[in-house]
Specification:
The chain is an alpha/beta fold. It contains 4 helices and 3 strands. Helix 3 links the parallel strand 1 and strand 2.
Length: 93
């Protein structure tokens, strides 16, 4: 179905192009980065609905002393996320 058609979008079909056309935008990433800077070493950062891992992957490059876990319902999105952010643990859920 086409976006905005009133039907849910099937992200499984768009995983590769979604990743190609998205990035961590500053107005979302900057507050996340400030929060991550306050976490103690060894803390776990969890992103539910991580898609192709834009934000959690960007955070993982900022603080490598934290554990990162991304959850998503789409296997294809997670496959792309794993290739883009290999230090993050991605789980289906």
């Amino acid at each position: 179905m086409a976006p905005n058609s009133g039907y849910p979008m099937d992200y499984d079909q768009y995983a590769r192009t979604y990743a190609w056309s998205r990035e961590a935008v500053p107005w979302v990433f900057d507050p996340l980065a400030r929060s991550a800077q306050l976490l103690p070493i060894g803390s776990t950062v969890l992103e539910v609905g991580c898609g192709t891992g834009n934000y959690i992957g960007a955070l993982a490059t900022l603080r490598s002393d934290l554990d990162y876990i991304g959850f998503d319902i789409s296997h294809p999105m997670l496959e792309v996320a794993r290739s883009r952010a290999p230090t993050v643990r991605f789980l289906h859920g």
